[in-house]
Each structure stands twice: as C-alpha cells, then as structure tokens.
Amino acid sequence: MRTYRLAVVKGDGIGPEVTEAALRGMHAAARRCGFSLDTADVDLGAERYLRTGEVLDEGTVSALRTHDAVLLGAVGDPRVPPGILERGLIVALRVAFAQSVNIRPVRLYPGVQSPIRGVTAQNCDLVVIRENTEGLYTGGGTLAHAGTPHAVAVQNSLTTVAATTDTVEFAFRLAQERRRRVTLCHKTNILMHAGQLWQEVVDQVALRYPEVEHDYVHADAMCQHLPLDPGRFDVVVTDNLFGDIISDLGATVQGGLGLAASANYNVAGSAPSMYEPVHGSAPDIAGKGWANPAAAALSAALCLAGLGEREAALCLEAATASVLAELPSLAGPGMGSDTAALGERIAARVMDVDPAQHAGGGGSLMSALSRLAREGATAVI
Ligand code: NAI
Ligand code: MG
C-alpha cells in the first residue's frame, strides 16, 4: 500500500483542535482511496518556546525535511511577543523548504452564504498565488534611534527575477489547467522598480503560454474587484504582502477565516510542502470547540492534491463542502456542533460522498494541483 509520511505541527490555540479534525477526514480519504498516512507529531509553537526558549532548531528542520508533507495548525500566543513564532517558525520554514509559492483558493461552496451580496458559488472560484519568500517579508532593515522622536525605520523589500519567475510560471501552469486567465496584482504605479520587474516577468512567461490570457489590477483596486466581481478572476498572481492581504479579503468573501485554506508549495518537490489554514491560533475561542475545522480540512485536501492523490483530495473537499452547507452558522456556538464533532462528520461523509460533486466547472484546483504535482514528481525523477 502507498504510504505517505506526514509531519504534523498542531501548534497553539485552536491549532490542535482543527488539525485533529482535519486529520480525521484525511485518514478517511486515504482509507477510501487505498493508501495510508504515517503521521508524526512535531512539537513546535508557543508552549515549546516558553518551555525551552527555542523556536525552531536545525535538528527539527532536518527531521521535517524527511517527510512527504507538513501539516500545520496555527502558531501564536498572547504570552509570546508578536513575530517570534510567526517569523521564526512559519516564515523560516517557508524559506528553508523553498516553498516559493503560496496557494490560496478563494471559493464559495454551494450552500455557504457569502457576507457579500451577489457572490455565488457560480461566480466565486479563484486562486491567489502569492510569492512566499520575498518582498517585504525578508525582514531586512533597521530601526535607528528607536523610542526617540528621531526614530527612523527602514524595512527592505526584495524582489528577485528567479523567485518571481517561479511564482508566475506556476500561476500560468495552474491557469492552463483551469480557466486560462492570469491577473497580476501589484502596485506598479507607485512601487515602480519591483512593479516593473513583476510586469516584465509576466510578459516573458506569458509568451510560453499563448492560450492563457493575462491582465493587470492594482492591489488597491483589487480590494473593490475581489468582493464585488470575483467572477472576473481565475488565477491571481501577486507578491508576498499583497497576497497576504488580498487573500484575507478573499477569506471573508468565501465565508470567513474558518473556511480559508492554503498551501506553502515547493514546486520542484525538492523539500516538503506545508499546508495550513489561513487563520491563526484564535486565542479568543481556543478550547471552546467553536473553531470551524473547514479551513484545516480544506488545507488537508490541498495536501492530498499536492501528494498527487486527486480522488482523495476531491473526496475530502466535497465532504467538507457538504458539511459546511448544513451549518446554521460558520463559526462559534452557532455552528451547532463543536470542532471535534464536525471533524467526525466530515470523515464519515468522506466515505460516501461523490468526489465529482464539487469538482467545479473550469478545472478544479484539487484536480489541477494533483496533475501538476504528478508532473513535478516525474520531472524530478
Ligand atoms: P486569527 O485568525 O487567529 O483570529 C481572527 C478572528 O477569527 C478571531 O476572532 C477568531 O476567533 C476567528 N477565527 C479564526 N479562525 C477561526 C476558525 N477556524 N473558526 C472560527 N473562527 C475563527 O487571527 P489573530 O487573532 O489576529 O491572531 C491570533 C494569533 O495567531 C496571533 O498570535 C497571530 O500572530 C497568529 N497568527 C498565526 C498564523 C499562522 O499560524 N499561520 C496566521 C495568522 C495569525
Ligand atoms: Mg495573513
């Protein structure tokens, strides 16, 4: 039987709750499709940091590297100053494992109510491809004379043609498997140097994909187009900061943070990819059973797709969507079931759901990613 080795970082707050629920669905999908998952819990996050002072050590990075994929819950804790875990762990792993693209689907599933009027399952199915290792997130810069009236902060933004090309190339490959449209989102009118580099890379890569149309939208204008007319987008490609921001906007459009999934994806397969919900550790609801596990379950479905397991990915996605459609509310006690019970419901549904049910028109992301993952694996061999 095929077996995948999965490292599981449950993390902090609601991280363990949603990850356990997602794993239940993932194991069910593996069972249904005839393979197995060998999971190993990896102790990282606030508790370990508070206990040992260590965020991420070389030994743990090497151990994670031996796995086929990493599943992450969320990290962050009010007792730990902001940035220590988020930068020291998540950003560090994205860089260490060359997870050069971040895949963030923005999809409204049938039966789920968007808070934005006029957004429907038919017109809301796009994917944000965010460059994942550069831009303002490289962390370089200085703060001189901190805490004085003369304080000066410089925060560097780095854009390389190599990482930009990897990201844009992936966006075009994905679009080719979907509705064949790529939109570059940037701020070329103000961030002229980085903007010019991005636009030139898009123009270059586009020459290799003549069947894929491409256009451009400024990041601020995107904040209007995305909620009001999501149907105009198929694959949106953008830099690290804009991608972080517009995908949270996308999360709202698709029903909230409890539903938004993501993949930190190593395109070449040279190190494991890491799959995590877009939301954080939600300390305000941790331990209450009020967290919606859908974002984690859909991230787990992306993980199955990233492993090339198309049918299992589609089953887990369809099961999650079908349970979501039954919820009276998408978060909190109004969901009518707690996080663990929802995980059980998703796992049970995986066994009898029709995987084609939510495969979507115009090329499902799960199918497209599975195909690209299999092509990538062949290319590496
Ligand atoms: P958050 O995403 O944890 O929570 C924002 C709001 O959404 C809260 O009201 C929360 O209750 C709600 N929410 C989040 N996930 C939910 C779910 N699955 N079901 C129902 N409601 C949900 O963001 P916040 O509060 O800004 O950050 C909390 C901590 O998480 C901070 O330490 C932050 O740095 C960290 N963080 C970590 C991330 C990661 O691990 N990738 C990403 C974002 C934040
Ligand atoms: Mg974010």
UniProtKB/TrEMBL annotation:
- UniProt cross-references to InterPro entries, sorted A to Z: ICDH/IPMDH, IsoCit/isopropylmalate_DH_CS, IsoPropMal-DH-like_dom
Q: What is this protein called?
A: 3-isopropylmalate dehydrogenase
Alphabetically ordered keywords of this record: Manganese, Metal-binding, NAD, Oxidoreductase
Indicate the segments forming the Isopropylmalate dehydrogenase-like domain, all copies: 5-346
* Keyword Oxidoreductase annotated: yes
* One Pfam family cited in the UniProt record for this chain: Iso_dh
The record, for Gene3D superfamilies, names: Isopropylmalate Dehydrogenase
Q: Which PANTHER family match?
A: D-MALATE DEHYDROGENASE [DECARBOXYLATING]
Which top EC class is given? oxidoreductase
Which terms does the record give in the GO molecular function aspect? Answer: 3-isopropylmalate dehydrogenase activity; magnesium ion binding; NAD binding
Q: Which cofactor does it need?
A: Mg(2+); Mn(2+)
The EC code for this enzyme is 1.1.1.85
